[in-house]
User: Fold these one by one.
Assistant:
Number 1:
Amino acid sequence: MELPYAEPYKIKVIENIRKSSRQEREQWIKESGYNLFKLRSDHVFIDLLTDSGTGAMSDEQWSEIMSGDESYAGSRSYFKLLDTINELLGMPYFLPTHQGRAAENVLFSALIKKGDVVPGNSHFDTTKGHIEFRKATAIDCTIDEAFDTKGLHPFKGNLDLQKLEDVFKKYQKEKIPVCIITVTCNTSGGQPVSMKNIREVSELCKKYGIKLIFDAARFAENAFFIKTREEEYKNVCIRDIVKEMFSYVDGATMSSKKDAIVNIGGFIALREKELFEKASVYNIMFEGYLTYGGLAGRDMAALSQGLWEGTNFHYLESRIGQVAYLGEKLKEYNIPIQEPTGGHAVFVDARLFLPNLPKEQFQAQTLAIELYKEGGVRGVEIGTLLADRDPQTRENRYPKLELLRLAIPRRVYTNNHMDYVAACLANIYDRRNDITTGYKIAKEAPIMRHFTVELEKM
Ligand SMILES: *Cc1c(COP(=O)(O)O)cnc(C)c1O
């Protein structure tokens, strides 16, 4: 028999988590304005809000925390991280930042101006926020297959080359400072981008003289999918795939809280000195001096170690295997999910799950609230609340997909936890036809409203 995957690590330290009663949870979620971001984590049993900064560091990463160098300038830990980025990503220049959106803030300050357009595959919310904050427009060029949750396309994060070329033809080159490929594509369901697509997008960008960067938060998970789903890469090792992926781009912004398995950290990696120097000015202004950029020396040291661990094949196999495990469980209960499952999360199709609830009443958010009340499990809405209002018309934007995301922290939960989550959803699915009323907005912020929005029951 073929041997199944097993975690290539064992547990050295544990953290206790507490169960609660349904009555307590109903009270807590009401007090939180039905916004799961406002819950205390002590009131959550299994926390699948995000895989961002929630991973468990290894003993070797904790050793790096102890041996980090806290010098203001020229820190040894900075050079350690520089060496890793050079070697692993093949990028000669880098700037440390405190997290991914800080990298966006710094790099976009150097690149994007009012009236620009920035094409890409379903930009992440902070990325879009940083583009729109500069009065520029993000244009989604993801393939149409990404928006059909039942279609089995292996690379639903791919860009549609025709849509992209249309943008390049419609706007002057000066209006398109950069094209962004998000690997894996978080917003469309943690879906990977194929090497072929990355290569073709890169060729198209070169043809039109447009810069190309990665939003690289989950580059290693993307590399795993290239290895397991793209025939010609099945015998290529993860790190060679990573090297090739980065060979097609001019740079990257990275949230290290994802695939580098640290609790805080980010960076910008760049190929050209000129852009590096331009961005350096903003890094000093917003983040800190060039050799620490908003991070402690120990953070950079742990991040460097995390980049090596995050690109280990056996780790990725168990990581992505666990996501697939939860997806399979949900399918056994006939729960509609985005297929195939992506890298870091299972996405439940809330529109199909709750057919009797109108979209104006926030289907995915309603499902997220039900799941919390059912078993103390915290997921997150990737739907209308997140899509926010149109900056011009201020009307609600109804995205093509209305999803409940169950993001799985790295190296934190066991498959017993996954079974528990699946059982909670199965119970809600049994009574789905009785869920006919949702929520309305009581209070919201002008931008990125989902973090702070307050809701009322209809
Ligand atoms: C998390 C994330 C970001 C932002 O990073 P933070 O570290 O949360 O600031 C940007 N892009 C993608 C794809 C992400 O997943």
Note: The first strand starts at residue 46 and ends at 47.
Number 2:
Amino acid sequence: MANISLSFSFILLIAALPWTRTLHAKKTNVQFYFHDTVTGKTPSAIKVAEAPTSAKSSTLFGVLFIIDDPLTEKPDPKSKEVGRAQGLYASAAQQEVGLLMTLTYQFTAGEFNGSSIVIVGKNSVFHKVRELPVVGGTGAFRFARGYALARTYWFNAAGDAIVGYNVTVLH
Ligand SMILES: *[C@@H]1O[C@H](CO)[C@@H](O)[C@H](O)[C@H]1NC(C)=O
Ligand SMILES: *[C@@H]1O[C@H](CO)[C@@H](O)[C@H](O)[C@H]1NC(C)=O
């Protein structure tokens, strides 16, 4: 993956322990594009549940989607696939379109092939930049903590979207 850069090691001191232990954590920045397709014959995001009142809600409050979205290196959907975002998001806000995202971003190419990060947090989709917490990971991203900055690159009225992710993690 061309647009991954590693930066220097950080030293985390865990002072709460009765003795002082030093953990060496690496800081990694990963960038990719997320393709969420709700339309067509093979949508990557499917609605699996909604409340009786959801259809009347301007924010689709109570709707739940399960997704398996491709992650690519560039905004172009045909660019190299570098992973998949799998899990669910739910419309969980009444005053704006705000999703609770609970997703595993599994990398399938490049340096982090086989490793994953987990993001859980609120995504106010009409905000220019959304910050989402990285709460964990596997493989190279064991013990991951960090944040993702998400910016919508493109969307249509039906709800299909391409979102740029800029993720920074200590792991
Ligand atoms: C990623 O890892 C899997 C399992 O080790 C391997 O089969 C696959 O070829 C790798 N993909 C790339 C693009 O390196
Ligand atoms: C990605 O985030 C890092 C850290 O917040 C920042 O330094 C960098 O400029 C960002 N890159 C882009 C393309 O937004």
Note: The pocket of 2-acetamido-2-deoxy-beta-D-glucopyranose (ligand 1) is lined by residues 108-109, 113-114 (CB under 6 Å).
Number 3:
Amino acid sequence: MSEPTATPHTDLSIRAAELDAADELFKLRERFALPEGVVYLDGNSLGALPAAVPGRVADVVSREWGELLIRSWDESGWWTAPERIGDLIAPLVGAAPGRIVVGDSTSVNLFKALVGAARLVAARGGAESGAESGGEPRTELLVDATTFPTDGYIAASAARMTGLTVVPVEPAELPAALGPRTAVVLVNHVDYRSGRLHDLPGLTAAVRAAGALAVWDLCHSAGALPVGLDAHGVDLAVGCTYKYLNGGPGSPAYLYIAERHQAAFDSPLPGWNSHAEPFAMSPGYVPADGALRGRVGTPDILSMLALEAALGVWDGVDVEAVRAKSLALTDFFLECVEAYVPAGRVESVTPAAHAERGSQVALRTDDAAAVMKELIARGVIGDFRHPDVLRFGFTPLYVGFADAERAARTLAGILAA
Ligand SMILES: *Cc1c(COP(=O)(O)O)cnc(C)c1O
């Protein structure tokens, strides 16, 4: 860890040094190129730069593009990058190979997932479908009322297109809101504002028991904690790769399609890249098998291959160990805040219970925007969320306990001034 200002030898700073010394993930920080003197607690918005990325991007540009030119679609594996990189993300979210495809933004993948889910429900016949069995038709798209805004906007449009009605529901109220009219349910795994972790296994089971489909947004969980998509029977999921997966600004997102839905998944964006025989250039559309049918058009190769290189930081890393360190870091940060910050100046909106906490701490305070500006000026980078939230994201691969202590101490200094 860098020490830009002398660290006072408080009990907490001594403990931080001991915790870092005992941390088996501490050395992973060497896989990143982080500026000296900065405590980076915004990896839940833009992950840090993995050290292998600049060289790989330079090679893709100068050799694969510059020299090999069009041959690279085959010879450099460009064409198959979306599914190959999907298979690199798969173990991080508990998916088997062949279930994840990379490309487009999270917003676009949400559109594919939600319309695709509505079509799966509509296409189901027999006893499973309320309408077919003489019951009520499934007309409702339940949407996490605390969702990141883009999910809500896309859900509203997907509902209009598929004839569903959006029903906003607080995640805690979901089990009670499910019923014979529920078609699809969209939930954010971790609330981007508060850092609250929702119960993916329990809610997915409840959604499926109600005969509906569960779509999960993993933007704030993938790369920070185990997800278990296959094990928990998730139907569809999306996530971005520029947060805890460190893919770089605007790096492509991904779509997960459970194996049992792949044969019937009917993408609302059936571009030629998802065709069974894209180079047959035939006028009729025939979807490819598997998660490939989540592809749309020509992939953004430069971003995609930067992401592939970035995923190398996960070599040999156990997501369970990442989760354990994440909880220890957020616990320790909260303890330091409690010890250093004048009483009553901040209030944590992040759940204290481990089972309900993602990998960030959100603190509510007056003047949050000005406080964050000053924190950044002092080398502690977090972010501000309207109207009064300071967000601190803890990426266990490159954040240490001394970082957490320094962040809390710097915050206390600002709030005491
Ligand atoms: C970051 C984030 C997004 C971002 O969507 P983009 O299409 O990549 O801009 C969407 N949903 C959630 C829950 C997020 O946290």
Note: The chain has a mean pLDDT of 95.
Number 4:
Amino acid sequence: MPTTSPPRAWAEIDLSALRQNLAVARQAAPGCAIMAVVKAGAYGHGLEEIARSLADEDLAFFGVANVGEARRIADAGVATPLYLLGATWEAERAEIVERGWVPCLSTLDEARQFSDLAVAAGKRLAVHLSVDTGMGRGGFLREGLDENFRRLEALPGIEIEGIGSHLPSADEDADFTRGQFAGFGEIVDQLGGRGRFRWIHLSNSAGLLEYDNHACNLVRPGLMLYGVSPVPGHQQRLRAAMSLKSRVTLVRTLPAGHGVSYGRAFVTTRPTRVATIGIGYGDGYPRHLSGQGAEVFVRGRRLPLIGRVTMDQIMVDAGEVELRAGDEVELFGPSIPVAEVAAKAGTIAWEILTGITPRVVRIHHDGR
Ligand SMILES: *Cc1c(COP(=O)(O)O)cnc(C)c1O
């Protein structure tokens, strides 16, 4: 057997944290079933692994971005129904009908094609009606909805078993969001009431944590399942599932006046113990953290990043901490919230998590 070295940068993923966060979602939206959103490789946590680990959790659906993700989950042997969160296009629809994945509809044209394909296959495809109540990304507009709904209901190959909409500002604008909940409720009533639909859904993580979802019977949490709250108030109840880690590769003392990293944007002002760590933007550790006061966690201490993030390596000021090559470093996880890293990089936690690249080995484990 050839020797295999341990990975240079890795993400530890605690599957028990996911289950705990799922329980928080259930508590926060009593009476609602759960669509666990696992798009973008389960927010970077590993699509097949996360789908398999939640397969027995009595979920109504997994929410995926596209047919590629749906196929991977189905091919992994997971039987949980799969819901396509985004619009589909023509070339994808035969596969969707064949596999019985659940699309959301925004136009009559899509609906007709789905219906024709289903009729040709001797099937009836379950679909959801998507309604645009303010997101502007997909769905039927409220204007003309009655008429459109009648036409959809007349199509023989589809069964409209759900209705959904999406919240653009549940973590930013309470007045607008309350208006969406009210408007969505009216739309459901207008189209036949709660009894007409098997599934009624509006909320993402922020919507289910912050608002009353009793008018719905399904919620679509993503981010919170991975242990990150989209709004500050709920973070203590959640547990971060991913810890991004690497190792110190070098520790040296640089003299005063020595530049560190590209552009020499950082220059030492005193003799400085500089530790080099084997992770960079090629792993998804954002280059935008350069010069923003970011920190890493090593040997029980936070140490400041100095100089620019390079593709494969970063440098920190080790100060008085006795670091050694091989020391394990947390870039984010229990000691450094990913939300903090995102804020310092000028972005959101969703982007940091989904931006961790394939070079980072995902190591799944089942708790402490
Ligand atoms: C991504 C997505 C979600 C999950 O959003 P979070 O904010 O991560 O909880 C829910 N619904 C739709 C339509 C989405 O695209």
Note: The mean pLDDT is 97.
